[in-house]
Amino acid sequence: MAIFKRMSLKQGNTARTNAAELTLRASIYPLCLVTVLFFLWGFSYGLLDTLNKHFQTTLGINRARSAGLQAAYFGAYPLASLGHANWILRHYGFKPVFIWGLCLYGVGALVAWPCILHRSFGGFCAAIFIIGNGLGSLETAANPYITICGPPRYAELRINLAQAFNGVGTVVAPVLGSYVFFKNTGESTQSLQNVQWVYLAIAVFVFLLAGVFYLSPIPEITDADMAFQAEETHANTDILPFRKQYRLFHAAFAQFCYTGAQVAIAGYFINYVTETRPNTSSSLGAQFLAGAQGAFAMGRFLGVVFMKYIRPRYVFLVYLTMCIVFIAPSITQRGNTGMAMLYVTLFFESICFPTIVALGMRGLGKYSKRGSGFIVGGVCGGAVVPPILGAVADMHNSTAIAMSVPLAFFVAAWSYALAVNFVDSYRTPADKMGEAQIGLQARDEEDGAHVVSKTEKGGTEHVEGGSGSEEIREVGKH
Questions:
Q1: Domains of the chain from N-terminus onward
Q2: Fewer CB under 10 Å: which end of the chain, C or N?
């Protein structure tokens, strides 16, 4: 009963806390803890891309049917982000959702064990559906938490840096797959047993991590906190009813199209290189996929650097444009040239997902938690686009020709990148939150490194930083 008592100590969504003004220093621990989750589902996602080809080989299924893995995984996201996880988030807060998501992930990993033992592809898809519900729950909470935990000005930097560790996870998984799943064991049964042990290890790890989250004190951020941030920066659009938050719904649409394209490319990357590059085995293809995911992770780290000096919306527009430019040649090119085009495409995909989340949530105020569910729900594009690509590849007996499918969805997502840069109602909230001063300086009572003195009847305010820098600001009479 202790855990239920602990959960009851939640902050009401109408209560203001100091979480709305967290400084960088105060937010470091919770951000580091939540960043572990990004690595975790990056690893799970990379594992799925590798298993796509693995099950084609060991179970003798075609490309369209193997996309059932992606359909089960990403199809669970809207159920979590718009359903159970979002309900827990709005009624109990972020921490319970983290624990709930990790427990679902662990249960799904355990269910995968007997399904693999009995070579049941349908059963394994069911296990992946449970895992997808767990990871969808984690994303429903973690993406907005990273975005709003700390100074608003650095929201895009924080989420892209955290998501960079997601990219690291997607590198580790294909490397593991190349040496474990595609290892020359001489029989598919032994190969499937290797997959079993991986999922058992995942289950143990995530249950332990759920315990760490339960014991860790992390600040809760309420709707009232987010409304305060939006009002302070004059970026609030929550004065409109939720149904009129058109920026949010456009961002969710862009997320659907972009994620679908990204998942389709990664899910059929091994098929692409084994078909178009001579003398390329599935094991070597998995290693190439790890390299491509390495380019993806590098793109995120570099994107963080660019966003330090350039407005995130500009970086987002350039990156998504380059995705369109480089995926197109992969349709007609073959061999190393075609593979290189996919490498560059994955590099530029890197910052798109987290930046859509951050920009889409700008100025939502009291609608932030509810709105995050719609943006994360857009991830279900990963359940729609890969089967389309698989069906086109089977129809033409060519994965390269089928790359025209993600190209079309990239173009659709590009509409949001254009709007957030050239439409005032999109651009203004993004820029105002990006210029916010909230959380950049600790309060007097919270940080002894700052000394603040004010005149009683107005005049000037003297602020001395810990480094000795000084600033004089006008203050009104009070």
A1: 11-434 (1.20.1250.20), 444-478 (no CATH)
A2: N
The strand pair at 459-464 and 451-454 is best described as antiparallel
In the sheet that 470-475 helps form, which strands lie side by side, from edge to edge? 451-454, 459-464, 470-475
Beta strand ranges found along 41-107 (DSSP E): none
Mark out the alpha helices in 153-187 (DSSP H runs). 155-180
Range 35-52 burial, b when 16+ CB lie within 10 A, else e: bebbbbbbbbbbbbbbbb
d(CA 107, CA 131): 8
| Residue pointed to by tokens 């047993």 | 193
Helices (H), 268-311: 269-276, 282-309
Structure tokens at 266: 């990664």
**Global pTM?**
0.73
Please check whether residue 81 is in contact with residue 140, taking contact to mean a CB–CB distance below 8 angstroms: yes
Amino acid found at 301? F
User: If DSSP codes are grouped into helix, strand and coil, which group holds residue 461?
Assistant: strand
- The residues with which 461 forms a beta bridge, in sequence order, are 454, 473
Handedness of CA 60, 63, 69, 75 (dihedral sign): negative
Q: How far is CA 196 from CA 118, 119, 201, in A?
A: 11, 11, 9
| DSSP structural state of residue 452 | E
Cα(270)–Cα(293) distance, integer angstroms: 12
In sequence order, which residues have a C-beta less than 8 Å from that of residue 348 and are 6 or more positions away?
Answer: 299, 319, 320, 322, 323, 326
Per the CB < 8 A criterion, the answer to whether 192 and 58 are in contact is yes
Question: Do 309 and 259 meet the contact criterion of CB atoms below 8 Å apart?
Answer: no
> Would you call 339 exposed, middle or buried from its count of C-beta atoms within 10 A (0-12, 13-18, 19+)?
buried
Alpha helices for 310-380 (secondary structure H): 312-330, 335-349, 352-361, 368-377
Please identify which residue in the block is written with the tokens 């939150």: 433
What type of residue sits at position 461? E
Residues of the chain with confidence (pLDDT) below 50: 1-4, 6-9, 185-187, 443-478
127 Ramachandran zone, left/alpha/beta (phi>0; psi -120 to 50): alpha
- For position 262, what pLDDT does the model report? 92
Structure tokens at 279: 């003398």
Q: Tokens in use for 462?
A: 């003297």
Question: Rounded CA gap, 172 and 339, in Å?
Answer: 20
Q: Residue 364: which of 160, 161, 221, 228 has the closest Cα?
A: 228
pLDDT, tens digit, 9 for 90 and up, residues 408-459: 999 999 999 999 999 988 888 777 665 555 555 554 344 444 433 333 334 4
- Exposed/middle/buried for 298, CB within 10 Å: 0-12, 13-18, 19+? middle
Q: What is the pLDDT of residues 288-316, one digit of tens each?
A: 888 888 898 889 889 888 988 888 899 99
